[in-house]
Structure formats: structure tokens, C-alpha cells
């Protein structure tokens, strides 16, 4: 079956990557931003719940949303934590750190906390939950809240 087409639903990310390394590499590439470059890290059934409980299904949707909220944004990863009870069928990984970048008007920012939760199943990311302080920071910028 040497000439058989590759079944993308069975493609696995590099099996030598630990769950933490898989998430760190995924984020490194996604923050370039290169959403097409991370396709091999995610399941075709990927479920994303982004800030504000926005439902998404592809890394490109995250990049498009970020492009509407920021001129540019990057993550400074401070910790990547793997939940110890994981298995090949489901391992939970948390990425914690801060965001830095520029708001659409060019004003720089840094220190904006984020927490991402991932579920990895058989070497692919199947779930991604994203939380950060951007909404609070935007309320402050608009004069509607104080820190």
C-alpha cells in the first residue's frame, strides 16, 4: 500500500513529543501566526471554546479572532502543566502565562494573564479552552472599569 493516500484523520503529531512539548510547539507555531502550520497537531474533530465562550473548530479561527482584537499578540509561557492521571486516550495539559502585544491602536501591553486547557487524545489536540484578562483590560481602556 505504498501509494495509498494518507488518511489525515489518523495523522499523529510527532510521537516523540511529550504532551507538554506538543502544546508548547503548537503554541509556538500558532503565535507566529501560522495556523496552517499546526494542522498536524489537531484532531479533525477539534473543539475550541475561546474567550467569551466563543465556539471554534480550527486554529485559523483563533488567529482571525486575535487579528480582530489585537494588532498583534504573543504568549509568554510561564508554565506548562500535565495532569498526572492522563492516558493515551485523554491527557489534560494546562498552559499558563501572560500575553503581550499591541492593541489595534498600536498601544503596547504586557502582563495580560492567560490560562489554556488542552485535551490530547492519541497524540492530537481534541479540545482547547482559552481564558485571558483581555476583556477586563478593554473595559478599563474604555473607562468602564478600574483595576
Topology (SSEs and partners):
Layout: H1 19-30, E1 42-50, E2 54-56, H2 59-69, E3 72-82, E4 91-102, E5 108-121, E6 124-132, H3 134-141
Parallel strand pairs: 1-6
Antiparallel strand pairs: 1-2, 3-4, 4-5, 5-6
Question: Which structural traits does this protein have?
Answer:
147 residues; alpha+beta; 21% helix; elongated; disordered N terminus
Textual characterization of the structure:
A hairpin with a 2-residue loop joins strand 5 and strand 6 (124-132). This protein has 147 residues and is α+β, with helices and mostly antiparallel strands. The model is unreliable at 1-11 (pLDDT under 50). The relative contact order is 0.18. Helices cover 21% and strands 39% of the residues.
Say how many strands there are: 6
What profile does the largest beta sheet have? 6 strands, mixed
Query: How is the largest sheet built, in terms of strand order?
Result: 2-1-6-5-4-3
Uncertain runs with pLDDT below 50, 5 residues or more?
Answer: 1-11
Mean pLDDT: 90
Radius of gyration: 17 Å
Give the fraction of residues assigned to helices.
Answer: 10-25%
Strand content: 35-45%
Order of helices and strands: HEEHEEEEH
CA distance, first residue to last residue: 62 Å
Shape: elongated
SSE class: alpha+beta
Amino acid at each position: 500500500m505504498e501509494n495509498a493516500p494518507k488518511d489525515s484523520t489518523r495523522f499523529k503529531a510527532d510521537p516523540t513529543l511529550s504532551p507538554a512539548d506538543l502544546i508548547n510547539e503548537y503554541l509556538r507555531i500558532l503565535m507566529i501566526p501560522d495556523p496552517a502550520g499546526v494542522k498536524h497537531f489537531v484532531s479533525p474533530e477539534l473543539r475550541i471554546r475561546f474567550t467569551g465562550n466563543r465556539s471554534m473548530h480550527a486554529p485559523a479561527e483563533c488567529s482571525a479572532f486575535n487579528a480582530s482584537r489585537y494588532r498583534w499578540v504573543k504568549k509568554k509561557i510561564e508554565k506548562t502543566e500535565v495532569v498526572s492521571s492522563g492516558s493515551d486516550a485523554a491527557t489534560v495539559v494546562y498552559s499558563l502565562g501572560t500575553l503581550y502585544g499591541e492593541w489595534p491602536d498600536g498601544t503596547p501591553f504586557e502582563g495580560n494573564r492567560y490560562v489554556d486547557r488542552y485535551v490530547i487524545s492519541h497524540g492530537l489536540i481534541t479540545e482547547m479552552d482559552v481564558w485571558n484578562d483581555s476583556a477586563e483590560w478593554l473595559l478599563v481602556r474604555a473607562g468602564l472599569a478600574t483595576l
